[in-house]
């Protein structure tokens, strides 16, 4: 059991946790955003991040600091906290990003980890190999083997109280991701970044990103804090949290501001194209778009970066509340409607519903059916799995209609869950709010529930009373189940 990470609340695979960072003597609540600080260019100062935005932790690049003689000497002399003027926790990257961009760097894992330790980093990172998506398998395997060697080197170094990241690589091969995660989990390292997913996010391949995270989560223990490296847009935070990610680092707030781009939870706008500012943060309540455009470039960049941070931190808080309320997947659903690629991500998440079900709480306040994807949520999977706990007998009517005295038992049928005894009608998730006009996918999943119940109870005679189900649903009902179309009566 990892003593430095404690789970408090959960919804789907998302969780609220407490990450204790011993060297900084702070405990950070997750999910958490780590703003990226370039030691040479600070659009928003670290002190302002801490005092105005409530940033508890940030990330900076130890490779850049190590490669600059003045910064290196100052970091070793006064420490990173004083160098950056930041009282919270500081994570440092190792130069792996530069390795992925330029093909080589001039430090080893031992050199950079010792430097991170000596400079006062609270969470350090070895030099892993960030294998990009879609490479051939041989390359992915070779580079993963190198990353595993680097993790072994990191374990052997005395890092004192500094926590150490154990990056999970494997490109777009789920089995390699799972293997890499299991290997990392078996080390005595502390935080587990899913690496080399930035190219997927840059190309809006959110479905592939979800598959990579799902594979990593299968290899990691439940008590493993997971960092999604390079995930900086608030549009996708809810999706990543629902898949089980706990930490995010963002340079997007500054990079987008530099290009005149304005972040929202549903996408990115260009300041030049805005007539109104659709936000209530201090920047947006104190300025009009024209006033922002009239500022000099430096001031405009700082104001846009501040807005971008406000909307980003706000989304993290909204996600935490959704976890507490048990409606994280409803939030994911809302965000999925912002962009077709986000919908791909949500559908990929639903493809892993059985995996999510193992972490998802068995009871919440309400289940809202909002789209065809809702039919594949973990709660539906769980209901179908638990039909083996029920014991129907004799002749049983499964119906969307009323009770009948002509049967030994009458069970309700509620799409997408399917059949259940009426006594369970007030239990979660069968209290679901479901639209009257049901889509084919909800009815198909209800039919799956009927088929599962019939398979489990071959000696019971089942009759299904449905209200005009389509052939795509009725084709899933076993031949031994008698079907009545109640809408024709």
TrEMBL record:
One of its GO terms (molecular function) is zinc ion binding. The active site is at 93 (nucleophile). Pfam families: TGT. Its EC number is 2.4.2.48. It comes from the Archaea. Substrate binds at residues 128, 196. It catalyses: guanosine(15) in tRNA + 7-cyano-7-carbaguanine = 7-cyano-7-carbaguanosine(15) in tRNA + guanine. Zn(2+) binds at residues 279, 281, 284. Pathway: tRNA modification; archaeosine-tRNA biosynthesis. One of its GO terms (cellular component) is cytoplasm. Keywords: Glycosyltransferase, Metal-binding, Transferase, tRNA processing, Zinc. Residues 13-340 form the tRNA-guanine(15) transglycosylase-like domain. Binds 1 zinc ion per subunit. Its cofactor is Zn(2+). GO terms for biological process: tRNA wobble guanine modification. The keyword Repressor does not apply. HAMAP family: TgtA_arch. Belongs to the archaeosine tRNA-ribosyltransferase family. Exchanges the guanine residue with 7-cyano-7-deazaguanine (preQ0) at position 15 in the dihydrouridine loop (D-loop) of archaeal tRNAs. This is tRNA-guanine(15) transglycosylase. It comes from Natronoarchaeum philippinense. The gene is tgtA.
């Amino acid at each position: 059991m990892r003593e430095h990470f404690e789970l408090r609340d959960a919804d789907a695979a998302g969780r609220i946790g407490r990450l204790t960072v011993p060297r900084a003597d702070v405990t950070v609540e997750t999910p958490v955003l780590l703003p990226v600080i370039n030691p040479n260019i600070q659009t928003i100062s670290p002190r302002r991040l801490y005092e105005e935005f409530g940033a508890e932790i940030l990330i900076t690049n130890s490779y850049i600091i190590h490669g600059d003689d003045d910064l290196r000497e100052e970091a070793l002399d006064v420490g990173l906290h004083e160098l950056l003027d930041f009282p919270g926790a500081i994570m440092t990257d190792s130069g792996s990003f530069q390795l992925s961009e330029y093909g080589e760097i001039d430090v080893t894992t031992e050199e950079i980890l010792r430097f991170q330790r000596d400079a006062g980093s609270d969470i350090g990172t070895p030099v892993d190999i960030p294998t990009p998506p879609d490479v051939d398998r041989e390359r992915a395997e070779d580079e993963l083997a190198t990353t595993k060697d680097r993790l072994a080197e990191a374990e052997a170094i005395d890092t004192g109280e500094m926590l150490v990241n154990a990056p999970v690589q494997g490109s777009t091969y789920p089995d390699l991701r799972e293997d890499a995660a299991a290997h990392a989990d078996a080390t005595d390292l502390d935080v587990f970044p899913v690496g080399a997913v930035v190219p997927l996010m840059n190309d809006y391949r959110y479905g592939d990103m979800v598959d990579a995270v799902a594979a990593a989560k299968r290899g990691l223990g439940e008590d493993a804090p997971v960092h999604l490296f390079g995930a900086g847009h608030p549009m996708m935070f809810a999706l990543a949290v629902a898949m089980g990610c706990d930490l995010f680092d963002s340079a997007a707030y500054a990079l987008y501001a530099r290009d005149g781009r304005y972040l929202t939870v549903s996408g990115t706008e260009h300041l030049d194209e805005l007539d109104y500012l659709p936000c209530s943060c201090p920047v947006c309540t104190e300025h009009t778009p024209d006033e922002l455009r009239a500022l000099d470039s430096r001031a405009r960049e700082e104001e846009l970066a501040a807005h971008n941070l406000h909307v980003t931190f706000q989304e993290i808080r909204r996600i935490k509340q959704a976890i507490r309320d048990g409606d994280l997947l409803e939030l994911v659903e809302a965000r999925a409607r912002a962009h077709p690629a986000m919908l791909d991500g949500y559908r990929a998440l639903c493809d892993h519903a059985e995996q999510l079900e193992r972490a998802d709480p068995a009871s919440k306040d309400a289940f809202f059916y909002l789209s065809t994807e809702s039919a594949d949520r973990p709660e539906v999977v769980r209901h179908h799995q638990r039909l083996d706990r029920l014991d129907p007998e004799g002749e049983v009517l499964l119906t969307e209609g009323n009770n009948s005295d002509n049967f030994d038992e009458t069970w309700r049928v509620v799409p997408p869950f399917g059949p259940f005894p009426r006594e369970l009608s007030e239990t979660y998730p069968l209290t679901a709010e479901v639209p009257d006009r049901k889509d084919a996918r909800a009815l198909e999943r209800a039919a799956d529930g009927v088929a599962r119940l019939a398979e489990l109870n071959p000696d019971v005679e089942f009759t299904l009373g449905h209200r005009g189900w389509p052939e795509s649903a009725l084709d899933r009902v076993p031949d031994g189940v008698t079907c009545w179309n109640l809408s024709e009566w």
